[in-house]
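Marked as duplicate of an earlier ticket. Keeping the data here for the record.
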Amino acid sequence: MRAQFVLSEIGVGLRRNLTMTFAVVVSVALSLALFGGSLLMSDQVTTMKGYWYDKVNVSIFLCNKSDAESDPHCAKGAVTEDQKKQIQSDLGKMTVVEKVTYESQDDAYKHYKEQFGDSPLADSLTPDQMQESYRIKLKDPQKYQVVATAFDGRGGVQSVQDQKGILDNLFGLLNGMNWAARAVMAMMLVVALMLIVNTVRVSAFSRRRETGIMRLVGASGFYIQAPFIAEAAVAGLIGGTVACGFLVIARYFIIDHGLDLSHKLNLINFIGWDAVLTKLPLILATSLLMPALAAFFALRKYLKV
């Protein structure tokens, strides 16, 4: 009988404050959708880092005849055979180096033609204008400075470049967008909590006569508070369910179908469905507990029981 009473009171309360309940559902849904999206963005950045950092190379570009005339790093002239042998020998002695690949001027010219053959500059370039280079795969991408310190400024070396620096800029941008989403999420959560507290206050005020009678007949404080707390929890749970639906639909249409980014951007290793599904229980638990706790503390002040 008591459970039936509480359930009936939940239905009555939700219907009485239908507009405010709808506002609570929408605000909770949007804030938790942003919360889940920020968690998935963090997972995506971590996945991309693990995928791309494992593939980055350090490149040592060697001076050619054109560089000797225009680049101050190559003021001593184009790289010699002895200098190339010494560079390769020194690379072989480094414990941080996993693999070294030499790219000749002809190879560099061939790769350039494959990638930028439609460029107007492609016809004006010749193989002798391209740079020879060593592509170095490191055991630990964080140890780039070991190679840079050893070869930067050496005779015959035009520059030492780390592809990881380019990726760091990309990941920095993604992390910035993630923190922006979290800031918006925090503001939405504050709005949701304010709506929940206000809804509970209005509901408690509209039923002050019933709660007064319940106190007179000896009802416990928890028994009086339970319908109000449950109303907030149910509204929050509906919002959490909607947020979960948003995330599932977004994953399906943006990555798998619709925009189909998984095929259009096949160089990006997108997170799988397992990452999405593991976030849904957390979102549902948050949507249930957050409104319930907000209602509980609001009732302590606005409902004297």
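See parent ticket for discussion. The mean pLDDT is 77.
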